[in-house]
Write a structure and sequence with these properties.
Structural class of chain A: alpha+beta
Oligomer: homotetramer
Strand content of chain A: 35-45%
Strand order of the largest sheet of chain A: 1-3-4-5-2
C-alpha cells in the first residue's frame, strides 16, 4: 500500500472565533491530500484526467473524527493512502498528526467520473484506470 | 423535535472544474444550518455564547453521504434537527434536497465548549445549557 | 442603471480569531452579488452561459476598502451595479452596509470569456452579449 | 526591504467551473503570504500577537490585478514585502509568478489592532511594534 505524506500549515484564515480550525477546512485538506497521494505516486491528477478523459473523483461519502484541535501556526503531518477498492470506487484514508499526536482521522469514499455521454455537463461513474490501482498499491482488480 | 429549514443557493465559487459543488462546501453549509437551527429556535448563537460564556460547539465527528451532485444556480432545501443528546454533546442531522429529491445527508457530533480555566486560549468541554435542550426539542436531561 | 440588492448573513465560519470576517470572504460575496445582479436583471448566469457559450466573467482587477468590520450574526445589505462598460469588460460596484452604515465598498473589473478556439481548456476575451448591457442598464454600445 | 518567498500549489478545490482559480482564493493566499513574511523575518504571528497583546492586522484596503489565470496543478511563486509604513499601518505588496511570468500583483493595506479597552470583543488601532518595522525592513519610524 502506497502512503503519501504532506505537511500543512494552519494559517490565520483557517481558524474561527474560538481560535481553532474551522472544521470544513479539514475536508479541504483531505481533498488536497488526495491530490498529493496521486501526484506522489507519479500520477498528477491534471495529466491523469486529460489522459483518461476523467471529470474527477467526486465523493460518495466523507467522514472525520476530531480528537484534538489545531490553531494558527500549527504544522500538521498528513498521511494518506487507499484502504479499499472496488471497480469504480476507492476509499482514501487520512490521518493528521501534530508532533506525533493524532488529531484528525477520516476517509473519503470516491467514485471515478467521466462526462455523461448524453450531456457533457453531467457526470457518470466509470471504471478506475488500471494504472491508478497499480501505483496506489491496490494490486490487480480481483486480487 | 424542532426541525429548522434553510434554503441555500449554489453559487459559481462553490463549484469545481467538474461543474459540481466542491464537497467541503457542504460541511460549511452544515455549520451554517446549525447556526440557523439555534437561531430559528430563538437562541441565536452570538447572544447564547455571550450569555453562557461559551466558546462554541466544536466538532467530535462529521459525516456526509452524497447521493447526488448540485451545480451553479441550484437551490438546496436544508432540514436540520438534533437527533441525539448527552450531557455535553449533541448530534445534529442534516438533509439537503433539491426539488424534493434527497442529495446529501449527514451529521455533526458537537460538544459544548468553554474557555479552559488554565488557559483562556484553549477550550474545555462543558454541560450544554438547559435552555438549548428545551428549545431544540430534546426534553429535560435524563428524560 | 440597474441596482441589485442582496442580504448576507455573517456566519461563524466566516470569522477569524479576532472575531471579525476574514476579508477574502468579502470578495466571495462580491462574486455572489454579481451572480445576483445578473439573476435579478432576468439573466441568471447558468442559462446565460449556456445560451451564449460563455465560460464566465473572470477578473481583471478587484479592490475593496474596509471602513468597518462585521461579526458573527451581522446582516449585511449589499448593493451591486455596473458602473462602467467597454466592449468586452464591465466594472461591477459593490457597497455593503449594516443598519445603514457603509462598511465595505469596492469593485470588480471583469471580462467576458469564451472557450479558446485552439484549446477549449483555456479561455479568450469576447464581446459582452448585447442583452447583458440592455438589462444591466448600460444602454446600447456606443451610446 | 525584506522580501519573503512562498510557493503555492493550485489545487482542485481552488478552481471554478471555468477551470481557473476562483479569484477570492488569491486574497486568501495574500493573507497566507503576509503570515509567511512575518515568520520568515523571525516574527511568527502567533507569538508576536501574544507578546504584544495584538488582535491581528485587519485590512483597510486590498487590491489585485490579474494579468493571467492559473489552473489545477500550477505552482505559483509568491513574493511579498512591505512597501509603505505609517505609525499604525503597513502596505504589503504581493507578486505571484508562474515560471517567471507575472500573473497576479496586488497589495493589502493593514492596520495594527489591539482589543478595544471598552469592549474586548471589539478592536482598536494601535502603533506597530518597533520590532516589526526593524525586521521587515522599514527602518526606524520617522526615517
Amino acid at each position: 500500500m502506497f502512503v503519501s505524506h504532506r505537511r500543512i500549515r494552519v494559517d490565520w484564515g483557517h481558524c474561527d472565533p474560538a481560535g481553532i480550525v474551522f472544521y470544513p477546512n479539514y475536508f479541504r485538506w483531505f481533498d488536497e491530500c488526495t491530490s498529493s497521494l496521486f501526484e506522489n505516486a507519479g500520477l498528477p491528477m491534471p495529466q491523469l484526467y486529460r489522459a483518461h478523459g476523467l471529470k474527477g473523483f467526486p465523493l460518495l461519502e466523507a467522514k472525520a473524527s476530531f480528537s484534538g484541535s489545531s490553531s494558527f501556526g500549527d504544522d500538521l503531518d498528513c498521511e494518506t493512502s487507499v484502504s479499499e477498492w472496488s471497480t469504480k470506487t476507492l476509499k482514501v484514508q487520512h490521518r493528521f498528526l501534530r508532533d506525533g499526536t493524532l488529531l484528525i482521522d477520516g476517509f473519503e469514499l470516491r467514485v471515478c467520473a467521466i462526462p455523461h455521454p448524453d450531456d457533457p455537463q453531467r457526470i457518470k461513474a466509470a471504471p478506475i484506470p488500471a494504472v491508478v490501482r497499480e501505483r496506489l498499491g491496490g494490486g490487480p482488480a480481483g486480487a
